[in-house]
C-alpha cells in the first residue's frame, strides 16, 4: 500500500517538475512576446492558483476523506493537462495554466494526508515514511525535467503534456484501487467544528507554525536557486548542460539521504530541531554558492543544498502530522502546501523586483535563513518542553 502512495506522490509532483523546462518555450512558440512580461505571468499563474486550491483541498479532504479527493484531483487534472495539446494562443495557455494550478493543488494535500493517516494506523516509523515520500518528490524533480526536455526536443511541447496527462490517468486508476482508511467515515463525517475555527486553531499551534514558516523560507530559497544558479554559472562561463547537472545534484544527494540509514534521523531526533538545522545547512550552501568561483565549488554547494533539503522536507511533513488532529489533517496539509506556493512566488518575484545579482541574492537568502532558523529554534524549545510535560 505504501508503495502505491509513494507512486501517487511521484505522479502528482511530476506535473510540476516536467513542465519547468518547457513552459516558457511553449508560450513563445504560441506567439507570446518576451518583451511584454506575459511569459513570466504565464509561468507564475500556476503557483498562484495552486495556492488557492491547496487550502480548499485540505478543507474538502477533512469533509470527505483523502481517497475521494485523490480520485477527483487526478481525473480533473488529467483532463486539463490534455487541453495543453489543443490550445493555439498565449491567452489560452494562460487560462489553462491557471486551471492546471487549481487542479494540481487538489492532489498533494490529499496524498500526504492519506499517507500520514495510513502510516499511523499501521504503526510504521513515521519519519522514515516521510523520508521515502521525500524520495518520491526527489525522483520527480530529477526525472520530470529530464524526460520532458528529451520529448519536447524530439516531438514537441504538446506531446509532453499528453504524457503528463496519461500519468494523471494512471494516478486515477491507482487511487480507485487503494483501500479506504478504516476509520475514514468516523474521522471525516462527524466533524462539527467550522472551517474557520479549524484554521484558527491550526494557526495558533506553535508546532505547526514551525512547519509553516520553515516551508515559506525553504520554498523561497528554492525559487531563488532556480532563478539565480543558471545566471551564476553563466557568469563563470560554465556550459549550459553542466548547469542542468548542477541542479540535479541536490536531488540525487537528497534521495540517497532519504533511502540510506541516514533516514533514521527523523525518528531519533525532534523534528522541531532537525528542520532549523536543515535551514542552516541550506544557508551555508547559499554562502558557498555566493563565494564560488569554480564549477567544483558550485557542486560542493549543491551537495550541501541536497543534505539541507533532505533534513527539511520530511521534518516539515512530520510536524504537520504530529501537531494536527486526524479530523483536520487535510486542512493542515493544505495550509502547509499553500505556504510552499507563497514561498516559491516570493523567492523569485522579490529577487527580480530588487534586480539583485546572483551573488547578492545568495548572500541575502542565506542571511534570512539563518535568522529564521534561529527563530524556529527558540520556538522549538517551548514546543518540546511542553510535549515532555504532557
From TrEMBL:
Residue ranges of the TM segments: 37-57, 69-87, 93-117, 129-148, 160-178, 207-229, 241-261, 273-292, 298-320, 332-355, 361-380
Compartments (UniProt record): Cell membrane
Highest taxon in the source lineage: Bacteria
UniProt-listed PROSITE patterns: MFS
SUPFAM superfamilies assigned: MFS general substrate transporter
UniProt key word Flavoprotein: no
Gene3D superfamilies the record matches: MFS general substrate transporter like domains
InterPro entries assigned: MFS, MFS_dom, MFS_Exporter, MFS_trans_sf
PANTHER family (alphabetical): QUINOLENE RESISTANCE PROTEIN NORA
Name under which the protein is recorded: MFS transporter
Organism: Pallidibacillus thermolactis
